[in-house]
Design goal:
Blueprint: E1 6-10, E2 31-32, E3 35-36, H1 37-47, E4 52-57, H2 62-67, H3 72-81, H4 84-91, E5 98-103, H5 110-115, H6 118-121, E6 126-129, E7 133-135, H7 142-152, E8 155-161, E9 171-175, E10 185-191, E11 202-210, H8 214-219, H9 231-240, E12 248-252, E13 257-259, H10 263-276, H11 281-295
Parallel strand pairs: 1-4, 1-6, 4-5, 8-12
Antiparallel strand pairs: 2-3, 6-11, 7-13, 8-11, 9-10, 9-11, 10-12
Amino acid sequence: MSRVRKAVIPAAGLGTRFLPATKATPKEMLPVVDTPAIQYVVEEAAGAGLDDVLMITGRNKRALEDHFDRNHELVTALRRKGDERRLAAVTASDDLATVHYVRQGDPLGLGHAVLCAADHVGDEPFAVLLGDDLIDPRDPLLGTMLDVRERYGGCVVALMEVPDEDIGRYGCASPAPGSSPDVPRITGLVEKPAPGTAPSNLAVIGRYVLSPEIFDVLRTTPAGTGGEIQLTDALRALASGTAPGGPVHGVVFRGRRYDTGDRGAYLRAVVRLACEREDLGPDFRDWLRKYVANEL
């Protein structure tokens, strides 16, 4: 089996939930404490050994390219000041991976964004990482998914157990009867199931390891939920065996995940990560305790 070397990061969304902040700034560049959300995702890919990263972008996303490029003027100024701490922070993103870019053009959904990577990926397996899900590096997920792919082949999706009342916000996996509770074989997938119709409480979160056959399926996948080409629909064909490229397995993730998909979740992610920082955490936690005690 081919080793997975490439990662695809869809980053073409308009970020309307964060307007007006995202009117001129890509949502992916919003800081989570003091690091853009997109950098956490690239660091995760690089940490799993994926040093070839393709970002699927759109209009007004030039800041992404600038962030992962060298800023010679800033580096020179920091060196002259002898500010090694900030210099290290600025240059940390320069050599994480070889980063490529392609524009999606029309906002036709996640499946279409993945299809935009076909020419770059070719006939190799690849990973897809969504920027709304930040995975704590102390709880590695992508490396486990790559191991499962080497063991079983096909595709691997990241899953998370969620309350029944929340499953309608996610794609939902149907595990094969009797399969492993930690690495279930998936027989079906439903995008945002209606209340009472979900086949399980296993929600698909934003990490995938995909076989290249997914591109052929996506090319013939009609628009689904929301009038968009859904990656879930293509994976369902592979999971059911109606298209080559399977099987599909899941990895049930029970570690630390930071959701930055909406304003409330984003704020909670910032607070959680700030509390855990050695340089910020002690003072910030002390202030937070006093604020909660006095104001709430």
